[in-house]
Amino acid sequence: MKRKHWGFIFGGLLVALLLAGVVSNFASSHPDGLDSSLREGCTFDAEDNITGGSCPAQQTKDHELADSPLADYGVKGVQNPYLSTGLSGVAGVLITFAVGGGLFWLTRRRGTGKRAVTGSTADEATGSGSTVDGPTGTGSTAGEQRPTGTEAGKLTSTEAGK
């Protein structure tokens, strides 16, 4: 991979880490649209517990991974909520980057060292020879020699008269 690509990748990773580690602490703690719609019809106390009414939120239960180390946008065992949220975001970005990078690495193209032979549209229509991109990229037909470099400027007297 070219060096300019690595700079772009690491720059993007740095931005993602800053957003996850710092800016995530400024996200709203109020429920989003889905949570709000599930809570309609119920009354809540100061600690956000359902005290009455009827709503779909009464049917909720803990997720199977609620005891995992990164549950509820925090790191288990870290008491500071800002640090916990930031560390959780950073861990999520690093895990996602590692999995994504690994998948790209597994599915990358591997060069064979040989140039591919491709047909031009005119050759495919007529069924004639295929075009080969040589080291000069001249697109000459297979078996045909075309002059390159200084040879192209030198014409014999018979060729110049044609």
Question: Would you write up a description of this structure?
Answer:
The mean pLDDT is 77. With 162 residues, the protein is mostly helical. It is elongated and about 75 Å long. It has helices at 3-21, 33-39, 81-106, 121-126, 157-160, and strands at 42-44, 50-53, 117-118, 131-132, 140-141. It has a 3-stranded antiparallel β-sheet with strand order 3-4-5, with no helix packed on it. A two-stranded antiparallel ribbon has the order 1-2.
SSE topology sketch:
Blueprint: H1 3-21, H2 33-39, E1 42-44, E2 50-53, H3 81-106, E3 117-118, H4 121-126, E4 131-132, E5 140-141, H5 157-160
Antiparallel strand pairs: 1-2, 3-4, 4-5
Helix pairs in contact: 1-3
Q: What's the tally of helices?
A: 5
Instruction: Bin the strand percentage.
Output: 5-15%
Low-confidence stretches: none
Roughly how many Å is the radius of gyration?
32 Å
DSSP E strands, number: 5
Report helical residue fraction.
25-40%
- Give the strand order of the largest sheet, numbering strands 1, 2, ... along the chain: 3-4-5
Average predicted confidence as pLDDT: 77
The N- and C-terminal alpha carbons lie at a distance of 48 Å
Order of helices and strands: HHEEHEHEEH
Largest sheet: 3 strands, antiparallel
Class from helix and strand fractions: mainly alpha
